[in-house]
Amino acid sequence: MAKVAYYPGCALKERSSHLDRSARDAALGLGFELDELETWTCCGAVPPVSSERVMNLIAPSRILKDVRDSGRKELITICDFCYNTLKRANYSIRNDEVIRKRVNAFLADDDPERTYLESDDAPWVDYDGEVKVLHLLEYLRDIIGFENLPAGLKNPLKGINIAPYYGCVMLRPEKEIKLDNPENPTIIDEFTRALGAGVVSFPYRTECCGSYLSVSSPDASTRLCYRILSSARANGADALVVSCPLCFYNLDSRQEAIAEAYPDFKPMPIFYFTQLLSLALGNGPEKQGFDMHCVDVSPILEKLDTPEAAEVGE
Amino acid sequence: MSQSKGVSPPKNPPLELNREMVRGEFGLRVDELSGQKLYDCYQCGNCSSGCPLAQEMDILPSAMIRFAQLGQKDILLNSGTIWICASCFQCTVRCPKGIDIEAVMDTLRQLALEAGVDHFGPDEISPELAAEVPQPGLVGVYRKLST
Questions:
Q1: Are B87 and B138 contained in the same domain?
Q2: Which of A69, A98, A137, B140 is deepest in the core (most CB within 10 A)?
Q3: Residues of chain A positioned with their CB less than 8 A from the CB of B93
C-alpha cells in the first residue's frame, strides 16, 4: 500500500483526534496510508508575516527538511493552520534568498541530537523548499481524483444537504497558498458532491469564524459563527462540513452561546470532511468520534439512506 | 431641533500633521517590517467593507492604513483594531492595489508589543477554555496578542 508522509500537528493528536482517526481510516479505504513522521514538533500555528520574524520559520522548516532528508517529496497535512504555516514557510524559503540563508544557518546550528535522520558523514545540504506540502483535500483532488471517489463508496451520502465551509487560512493568502480561488472556492463542494450529498452554497462560506479570537474575544467569535451558521441554514443546509480544527471548535462548541444570544437559532451539526469520507467508504458512525461533538449529529445520520435502510425498503 | 443639516460632528479632534509624520520614520518602519508600500493605498475601502470584524473595530482597516501613511503611531498602537483583527487575510486578497494589509496589521501588533505588555496574557484564559480550545487557537492567540 502506498505510504505518504503525514504531519498531523498537535490538535489532531489530542483535541481533534477524531479528525486524525477518520482521515487515517478514510485513506486506508482509498488504498494509501498516512505515514506519520517519526519525530515532529508544533509548526507554530501562525506564520510570521513581518519580515524580522525569521525565528518563527525554524520549526516548520525543520519539519520540511526532515521530510526531504528521509527521501520523500510530498507531505500531507490536514489542519488548515498547519497547512498554511508549512506552505508559507516553504514559499518564503523558495522565494527569498535572505530568509533561505538565515533559516538554513539556524537549522545547521541545531543540536546534533536532532540530526537523527542523517548519517554522521552526510554533508549538510541546504533546505531549499523542495518538499511539496499538500492538504489532504488537495491530495484527494489532484492525486486520487474526486471523479474516482464515487466508485469506491459503500454508503454514498444520499439524502442530506451539506454546506461546505472554507474559512480563512486554507485559502488565503492566495499568492502563497494557491489551493483554490480564495473568493469562489470549489474544492470542498466538489468533494462533497463526489460523496453523493447535496451541496449548499452560502454567502458566508469563506468568512472567518473568529479563529483564535474564541480565546481573547469570544463574543466576537459567537457573532461571526451565528452569521455563518444561520446563513447556511437559510440556504437549506442540514449540516456544515469543515476541515480546520479551530473552525470546527468555534462552529460546534459556540452553538450553546449562540442559542443564548439569539433565540431564533437552531443547532446545526458540524462534520469534518474526513468523517463524511470515512462514513461514505463504509466505516461506521462509531469510528468517527461523534461523542467529541457538542452538537448531536444523529439527526443527519438518520437522514442518510444507509444500505441497511435500503434493504429494509426492498 | 437645531441640527437641521445631516452632518455629524467629527469624532476625533483634527490631526496635527507635520513633515516628520508624513512619510516619516514610523511609516517607513511599518513599510520595512511589513514589506508593503503604504502609499500605494488610495483609500477605496475594499478592505473595510470585506472585513468580517469591521463592526467590532474602533478604526476601520482602510483608516488604519491612512493613519499609518500619516505617521500616527499613537493612534495606531492604541487602537482596539489590531487586537480584534483575526488575521483571516480577507483584506489582503481583496486589496486592488495588492497591499498585504494583514502584514501591516501584524507589524502594528508587533510594534505595540515591543513595549513589553501583553494584550492577552497567559493568566487571562479560563481553565475550562484552556482545556478545550484546539492548540492552533492557543498558540495563535499568544503568538499574536502577547510578547
A1: no
A2: B140
A3: 172-174, 182-183
Contact B27, B38 (CB under 8 A): yes
pLDDT digits (tens, 9 = 90+) for A126-161: 999 999 999 999 999 999 999 999 999 999 999 999
The CA–CA distances, whole Å, from B46 to A146, A287, B50, B101 equal 35, 45, 6, 11
Residues 6+ apart with CB under 8 A from A238: A160, A161, A162, A268, A269, A299, A300, A303
Hey, where are the domains in chain A?
Answer: 2-134, 155-313
Cα of A191 vs its chain's centroid, Å: 13
Do B110 and B124 share a domain, yes or no?
Answer: no
pLDDT of res. B2: 43
Same-domain pairing of B65 and B133: no
Considering only CB atoms, B136 lies closest to which of A49, A173, A246, namely A246
Is residue A62 scored above 80 in pLDDT?
yes
pLDDT over 90, % of chain B? 82
Domain A155-313, second-level architecture:
3-Layer(aba) Sandwich (3.40)
Cβ atoms within 10 A of the Cβ of A175, count? 13
Q: How far apart are CA A110 and CA A122, in angstroms?
A: 15
Residue B138 belongs to a domain: yes
Does A8 reach chain B within 8 Å, measured CB to CB? no
Ramachandran region of residue A5, left (φ > 0), alpha (ψ -120 to 50) or beta?
beta
Listed by number, the residues of chain A in 22-51 with a beta carbon closer than 8 Å to a beta carbon of chain B are 42, 44-46, 48-51
Q: How far is CA A217 from CA B77, B89, B125, in A?
A: 18, 18, 11
Q: What percent of chain A has pLDDT over 90?
A: 85
Domain that holds residue B91: 25-115
pLDDT of residue A85: 96
Give the mean pLDDT of A77-105.
94
Per CB-CB distance under 8 Å, the chain A contacts of B90 are 168, 172, 206-208
Please provide the average confidence, as pLDDT, over all residues in chain B: 91
**Tens digit of each residue's pLDDT (9 = 90 or more) over A297-310:** 999 999 986 554 44
- Selecting from 3.60.15.10, 1.10.3720.10, 1.10.150.170, 1.20.1050.140, what CATH number does the domain A2-134 have? 1.20.1050.140
pLDDT at A32: 98
Do B111 and B48 fall within a single domain? Answer: yes
Closest CA to A27 of A152, A131, A133, A151: A152
> Is residue B5 domain-resident?
no
- Write the pLDDT tens digit of every residue in B55-114: 999 999 999 999 999 999 999 999 999 999 999 999 999 999 999 999 999 999 999 999
- Can you count the helices (H) and strands (E) in chain B? 9, 0
